[in-house]
């Protein structure tokens, strides 16, 4: 049963991803098609593949940190606390953007998320370098996603006004 924590912590991020996929699926075919989007936006089919990979990497990284800290110990409070914060922010973005159609709020939220991922990486590095480096593709993808969110907000100025 020593594999159970690894499996559980690796799978954990996918729970929010499944909910996010549920929220997104309907909106991608309806509301999202009405938005002005930049030409460099990745194809919609890329997103589930990328997020599955990123969630697996961050989940496994959290397991490495958990294991190195001896579980949920005092040593784990800061690195796993930052991880929990970024995970909550990650899970919150989709309902804000796709569910509530709040483009500006989603932009502010994803900037906070990106900062929280950076803080998580910094806190993980002295504990387990591999775990920290597993978050590098996630941080890079968030930079792209933040740029995309910004462009969509900028190019759809009436959207937030209609919702407020």
TrEMBL record:
Pfam families: TspO_MBR. It is found in: Membrane. GO terms for cellular component: mitochondrial outer membrane. The chain crosses the membrane at residues 6-24, 45-66, 78-98, 105-125, 131-152. Keywords: Membrane, Transmembrane, Transmembrane helix. One of its GO terms (biological process) is primitive erythrocyte differentiation. It is a multi-pass membrane protein. Signal peptide: none annotated. Belongs to the TspO/BZRP family. This is Translocator protein. The gene is TSPO.
């Amino acid at each position: 049963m020593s594999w159970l924590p690894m499996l559980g912590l690796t799978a954990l991020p996918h729970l929010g991803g499944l909910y996010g996929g549920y929220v997104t699926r309907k909106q991608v075919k309806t509301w999202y098609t009405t938005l002005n989007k930049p030409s460099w936006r990745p194809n919609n089919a890329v997103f589930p593949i990328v997020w599955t990979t990123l969630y697996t990497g961050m989940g496994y990284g959290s397991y490495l940190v958990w294991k190195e800290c001896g579980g949920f110990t005092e040593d784990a409070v800061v690195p796993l606390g930052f991880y929990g914060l970024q995970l909550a922010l990650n899970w919150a973005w989709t309902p804000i953007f796709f569910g509530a159609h709040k483009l500006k709020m989603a932009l502010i939220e994803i900037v906070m998320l990106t900062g929280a991922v950076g803080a998580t990486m910094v806190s993980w590095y002295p504990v387990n370098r591999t775990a920290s480096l597993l978050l590098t593709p996630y941080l890079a993808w968030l930079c792209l996603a933040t740029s995309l969110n910004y462009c969509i907000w900028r190019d759809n100025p009436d959207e937030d006004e209609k919702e407020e």
